[in-house]
Amino acid sequence: MDFRVEITDPAIDDLAEIVSYIAQSNADAASALGNHLLDAALSLAQTPYKGSPYRHIGNVRKLTVRPFKIF
Questions:
Q1: Separation of alpha carbons 49 and 61, rounded Å
Q2: So where are the chain's domains?
Q3: Angle, nearest 10°, between helix axes 27-42 and 9-23?
């Protein structure tokens, strides 16, 4: 059974900004990083207890993909 992973519009905007910035120097690295971060976030659908609970919001977990944190 897969769990629901919600990727919000502000998160997509942040990711796009990060990828665009890195792409100025290295488009391949930017694409790889963007895909890696999305894959990490989406992996929570199958392994929902990966990471740690985020105590400020119920039913939210924090996953660290250095140097980024995914909530």
A1: 8
A2: 9-70
A3: 150
What is the Cα–Cα distance from 65 to 29, expressed in whole angstroms? 15
The upper half-sphere exposure of residue 66, i.e. CA atoms within 13 Å in the direction of its Cβ, equals 0
**Inter-CA distances, 47 with 5, 43, 44, 51, 63, Å:** 11, 6, 5, 9, 11
For 23-50, write each residue's pLDDT tens digit. Answer: 999 999 999 999 999 999 999 899 988 8
pTM > 0.85: yes or no: no
Tokens of 69: 């944190």
